[in-house]
Design brief:
The chain has helices spanning about 115-120, 140-150, 175-180; strands at about 5-10, 15, 20-25, 45, 65, 70-75, 80-85, 90-100, 100-105, 125-130, 155-160, 190, 200. By secondary structure, it is mainly β. It has a single domain (about 5-200), classed as Ribonuclease Z/Hydroxyacylglutathione hydrolase-like (Metallo-beta-lactamase, Chain A, 4-Layer Sandwich). α2 crosses α3 (about 175-180).
Length: about 210
């Protein structure tokens, strides 16, 4: 059975592992309070290559391909589409991944809710990785509204304050209150085509190493 394992390493950094390879999104620097450890990947995607705290691709093992621009890519059977989203201070990159039949979107760090033209590119999203903690990106209320507009099957919040990261970001409680959901955090999320829920579900992950 094909499955995708999703682990959160903090901020906007996830490891998405499929049968043939793994993607690491926005590798965190040690200055964030999180760490990569001995993490390896075949591909690294960067939503903000100008932010050293989430573009530490040199710390990733395995000599990965680094993707930071719009376009379509395929590595080890993993399909990746880079989608630019304007920000007040430039742009962020969102990425859509198809891994072993599971469609995952990493929304990057947009400063406001993307317009409808951009949202049209996010179709049939099984898993949405989205920022919820403000700090120059989506606030809890904006994220909750956008979650409904994209209408994925699973939402995994990212970029919020934790015990490892005493930043200006908001804690996750505000988003969960807006979303009307209080799930128990898990160390990882395993997704197969058969396990995808029919109703929108929020899944909270513990940062790896916490």
């Amino acid at each position: 059975m094909l499955l995708v394992e999703i682990s959160w390493l903090g901020r906007t950094c996830f490891r998405l592992r499929g049968r043939e390879g793994a993607v690491l999104t926005d590798p965190v620097a040690a200055s964030t309070g999180y760490g990569l450890g001995r993490t390896s990947a075949e591909v690294v995607t960067l939503s903000r290559s100008d932010d050293p705290e989430i573009s530490n691709h040199e710390g990733v093992r395995g000599d990965p391909l680094v993707v930071e621009a719009p376009g379509e890519y395929e590595v080890r059977g993993i399909l990746i589409t880079g989608i630019p989203i304007p920000r007040e201070d430039g742009r962020t990159m969102a990425f859509a991944y198809e891994i072993d039949g599971v469609n995952i979107v990493h929304l990057g760090l947009p400063s406001t809710s993307p317009d409808s033209k951009i949202l049209e590119r996010f179709e049939n999203v099984d898993v949405l990785l989205m920022p919820v903690g403000g700090g120059g990106s989506l606030s809890a209320s904006v994220a909750a509204d956008l979650m409904q507009r994209i209408d994925p099957n699973i939402v995994v919040p990212m970029n919020y304050r934790t015990d490892l990261d005493s930043t200006h970001l908001d804690p996750i409680d505000r988003f969960l209150s807006e979303a009307g959901n209080t799930p128990e955090p898990n160390p990882r999320l395993t997704v197969t085509r058969a396990s995808i829920p029919s109703e929108l579900t929020v899944e909270v992950l513990k940062p790896r190493g916490s």
